[in-house]
Amino acid sequence: MVDGARPVRGGRLLGVAGANPRERFGEIATGSDAAIDLAEAALWIAAEEYADLDVARYLARLDSLADAAAPEIAQGGDAVERIATLVDFFRAQGFRGNTQDYYDPRNSFLNEVLERRLGIPITLALVMQAVGHRLGLGFEGVSFPGHFLLRCAVPDGLLVVDAFERAILDRDACQRRLDAALPMPALLEPAVHLRAAPPREILGRLLGNLKRIYADRGDLERTLGCCDRILMLLPDSPTELRDRALVYEGMSLHSAAAADLDRALELLPGHPDAAALRAKRDALRAKRGAVH
User: Fold this and answer.
1) What are the φ and ψ backbone dihedral angles of 162, each rounded to 5 degrees?
2) What per-residue string of b and e applies to 152-179 under the rule 16 or more CB within 10 Å gives b?
3) pLDDT value of residue 11
4) Which of 68-77, 124-133, 228-237 is predicted least confidently?
5) Which domain holds residue 279?
6) In sequence order, which residues have a C-beta less than 8 Å from that of residue 64 and are 6 or more positions away?
7) Does 18 share its domain with 162?
8) pLDDT tens for each residue of 134-190
9) 202 CB burial (10 A radius; 0-12, 13-18, 19+)
10) What share of the chain is helix, strand, coil (3-state, %, to 5)?
11) Handedness of CA 100, 151, 92, 117 (dihedral sign)
12) pLDDT the model gives residue 18
């Protein structure tokens, strides 16, 4: 491969009904946060892996789940009771955390989660959030340390839901989870630890999970695809630019790697790692033009 060329897995990125999953995701990523449908965006992430995935069909599956839950939700009383009813419905439908094979990539693809009723905290939360929104429950995602959660405003404050455990969490339960996730003890601060995550952050976390899985498996091509899409969402993230540069380097795409490090250094000129990044960039520049 000549340095600078970009691979496309399987020679194609075409997906559903002639749509290009990467292009469609890019359109979503460059739109406003308010316009992002998280379930749809997550399905376009999956569509790059599943060439025949019908996004509309899986969105209709979420509609069907909401329709099935609606009679039970309608019998509920206040918002807290309606949310508790939805959590019970979620359990009765068989949605659960995949504790047996947590790092199976299928846990991160929303179509697979809907088919298998297995997932990880963030994808199970996306399903519950999507169904809840269809029923008038205003769930928001929470990028809680170590374990993605949902929150919903209720008259007395916030109700926190763990879709993975299919449980409603009180403050003490949130504190215990925070203690388990952080290296040093910290007092739970709802405004910090339970803040609503914007859609771009949520999608970036979903792709970040996949990126780590593929990187651990040495699958550079899929890792690169995750990096590319994270940077569509967060184009000025120095960390993501650095990570993509490392993937490029592993693929002997030295020019592309050096360009990403250049941009990362522009964004973080005084960072403690700046000297190391400059040395890495200079070494990559020395390799440019080589044929592999």
Assistant:
1) -105, 105
2) bebeeeebbbbbbbbebbeeeebbebbe
3) 33
4) 68-77
5) 199-287
6) none
7) yes
8) 999 999 999 999 899 999 998 888 999 999 999 999 999 999 999 999 998 899 999
9) buried
10) 60, 10, 30
11) negative
12) 62
Enumerate the β-bridge partners of residue 154: 157
Among 172, 193, 214, the domain boundary falls at 193
Mean pLDDT along residues 218-243:
96
The residue behind tokens 């790692």 is 273
Extended beta strands in the chain, E state: 96-97, 118-119, 139-142, 149-154, 157-162, 167-169
Cβ neighbours for 286, distance < 8 A, ≥ 6 positions apart = none
Rounded to an integer, the average pLDDT of 4-26 is 59
Task: For the beta carbon of residue 26, count every other beta carbon within 10 angstroms.
Answer: 16
Which domain CATH number covers 256?
1.25.40.10
Report how many domains make up the chain. Answer: 2
CA atoms of 175 and 170, how far apart (whole Å) = 9
CB-based contact 109:49 (threshold 8 Å): yes
- Could you give the dihedral angle defined by the CA atoms of residues 59, 61, 66 and 71, in that order, rounded to the nearest 10 degrees? 150
Q: pTM for the complete prediction?
A: 0.89
Boundary of a domain, candidates 134, 160, 193: 193
Nearest CA to 48 out of 221, 198, 213 is that of 221
Q: Are residues 165 and 72 in the same domain?
A: yes
Provide the 3-class DSSP secondary structure of residue 195.
coil
In angstroms, what CA-CA distances link 224 with 136, 240, 283, 291?
38, 11, 21, 20
What 3-state DSSP class applies to 54? coil
pLDDT at 271 over 90: no
Instruction: Look at residue 254 and tell me whether its pLDDT is greater than 60.
Output: yes
